[in-house]
Amino acid sequence: MAFDTAMIGKKEASASAMVQCSLTDRWHTLQESISFYIPGQEPVDQSWEENFQDWTSPDTEDCTWCNTHIKVEELPAAWTYLRVIDYDGRRRGIEEFTEFVGFSLANGREGISLQSALDKSEELDMLEEGDQEAYDKKWGVASKNHFRLQFEGCSPYQRQIAAMRATAQGGSISRKTLAHEIAGEVKQAIKGTAPQHKGRPIELKYLRLLAFKRVAKGSWQPVIKINETELFREQPGMLCKQYQK
Asked: How many Å is the Cα radius of gyration of the chain?
């Protein structure tokens, strides 16, 4: 499915000051035309005063930054795009790729937990159109694709993954199968490159897969969000900094 690139960058001007994503311009804003698959990025919650309070119950922790108390469990999830280095396999002035496979749940939630996709647990069963073909026949996808992922500050990771069913009938693998494959590759990329996000080690359990976008004729790259609340759970002072922006 294609989308209009003319509006790219407009909706997220307010978020760019907080989140310096390295996604390409055409993926920095997601249009209404594809909101069924990937709702537009929402800025990090700005209502810090409403969510950050001076709790005094025994299960609160001292914030080392502002010397007040916070109950980490009650802070809202701060989802932001994971910083990656975009692979660009286009021939300049000749090719432009807009194809992507989107992921969302039947209940309307954007994306799918990569941990759930790997474990084939609850969210994988809830995947919207999970049993349908992931790749459109019009895209001309080969039997295998190059999976590419380069975390910021890390060397690139790439590997061939199946795109078509190994049957006489052929046809695309399902959306569920693709999500499971991507989760496995992201896990291996994390294991091999030890990436960090704002000084904290990235783990699969913090990540949600929103889409798998085409970046070259035979290469695709995941679009991922990370839950900063969970990532910084062990450092509540850092959480305080996030919510006072």
From this structure: 19
Could you list the residue range(s) of the whole structural domain that residue 50 is in? 13-243
Nearest alpha-carbon partner for 1 in 127, 97, 130, 94: 97
207 domain-assigned: yes
Using a cut of 0.90, tell me whether the model's pTM lies above it: no
pLDDT tens column, 61-80 = 444 444 445 555 556 778 99
User: pLDDT digit string (tens) for 110-139?
Assistant: 999 999 999 999 999 999 999 999 999 999
Cβ-based neighbours of 17, under 8 Å, separated by 6 or more: none
Q: Is 98 exposed, middle or buried (0-12, 13-18, 19+ CB in 10 A)?
A: middle
Number of domains in the chain: 1
Where on the phi/psi map is residue 163: left (φ > 0), alpha (ψ -120 to 50), or beta? alpha
Helix (H) or strand (E) holding 220: strand 219-227
Burial of 110 (0-12, 13-18, 19+ CB in 10 A): buried
